[in-house]
Design brief:
Layout lengths: L32 H12 L4 H18 L8 H13 L5 H18 L6 H4 L14 H10 L3 H13 L3 H5 L11 E4 L8 E4 L2 H11 L35 H14 L8 H14 L4 H8 L4 H4 L7 H14 L10
Antiparallel strand pairs: 1-2
Helix pairs in contact: 1-2, 2-4, 7-9, 7-11, 11-12
Length: 330
């Protein structure tokens, strides 16, 4: 607790909350009434499921710390809570922004409390360039992934510049025609189409024949599937798609085996896709559309990561200056 905390206004005991089921913003009876109504509001606002879960998670943390319904606390107590997250838990700037956004939605949008605190909190991130793998490093990565479903998944993410959650949710219907991928429920509830390389389309056809699920492209095998007789054969009846956590775990192992740079994650494949397309001369506007960026400014960061563009720019600058005229004879 932060010194001077006073949570007396909240009152009541808070029972342990069960974690939400993956892919659904599920409210359990342990939530106080205000959180139940808040969860309903988030659904009515048609926020992304992951955003709903994140907002609820942050408010539940506050409720657990309060020991009751957080609707009873005042602005000073919320300020103390945010300081506690920053100082005691050392939340990163990104996590602090998420926490403040959740509190703004709960107290401001849901409870109608227009507190100045929300406009005062600032958590800027240091501007850093994303890590990008070379094409040789991409080859090394794929060479060490031995399980076919993960290899196909990682190759698809790189081939189409997808976010890991977008790739995991793909359905058979999203690849109709075999020339492009229809990305649904992307970040910001947007949809987009991404070119699908012919070789990748053929890999996906071959992979789909290993399970023939009528809807899911990457059905989940479930935990402990290797010990369950006939589990792979029952993939066609799977209820959920492959979990993002399992993909990330596979990537961590592959990064170590391939001796790739520290900080390489699944999302690094998306950064590498954009940079390599730029090196091939693809329009920055097209790349921005393929990535689903709301602003071209977001995509422009990749111009700082390509050695080809840097070399071309230097050559162009060198050509700008005309030859020096001959020195006149005096």
């Amino acid at each position: 607790m932060v010194a001077g905390d006073d949570w007396g206004k909240a009152g009541g005991a808070m029972s342990t909350h069960t974690s939400t089921k993956r892919g659904h913003a599920r409210v359990v009876p342990a939530d106080p009434e205000s959180l139940v109504r808040f969860a309903e509001l988030l659904k009515l606002r048609s926020l992304a499921r992951t955003t709903q879960e994140e907002y609820l998670r942050y408010v539940r943390k506050l409720a657990a710390r309060v020991g009751g319904d957080p609707a009873g606390i005042d602005e000073a107590q919320l300020r103390a809570h945010l300081l506690y997250l920053k100082d005691a838990h050392h939340y990163s700037p990104s996590s602090m922004r998420s926490a403040v956004a959740a509190m703004r939605a709960y107290f401001g949008l849901h409870l109608g409390r227009d507190w100045k605190l929300f406009d005062l909190v600032r958590s800027p991130s240091a501007l850093t360039l994303p890590l990008v793998l070379t094409r040789e490093e991409i080859v090394r990565l794929f060479a060490v992934v031995r399980e076919d479903r993960f290899l196909t998944m990682l190759r698809l993410i790189y081939a189409c510049g997808l976010r890991v959650s977008e790739a995991a949710r793909l359905e058979v219907e999203d690849l109709r025609g075999g020339e492009r991928v229809h990305v649904r429920e992307a970040k910001g509830q947007k949809e987009r189409y991404v070119p699908l390389p012919p070789a990748m389309a053929q890999e996906l056809r071959v992979f789909w024949k290993t399970h023939r699920h009528p809807r899911l492209l990457f059905p989940s095998v479930g935990r402990g599937w290797k010990e369950i007789p006939g589990a792979v054969q029952r993939l066609a009846a799977a209820k959920e798609s492959m979990g993002v956590g399992s993909i990330q775990h596979c990537m961590r192992l592959a990064v170590a085996d391939a001796r790739l740079p520290k900080g390489t994650h699944v999302h690094t494949l998306r950064h590498s896709y954009a940079t390599h397309l730029l090196e091939e001369g693809v329009s920055i506007r097209l790349i921005s559309a393929y990535l689903g960026h709301s602003s071209l400014e977001t995509t422009l960061i990749y111009t700082h990561l390509t050695a080809v563009n840097e070399a071309s720019a230097r050559a162009a600058v060198a050509r700008l200056l005309p030859p020096r005229p001959p020195t006149p004879i005096m």
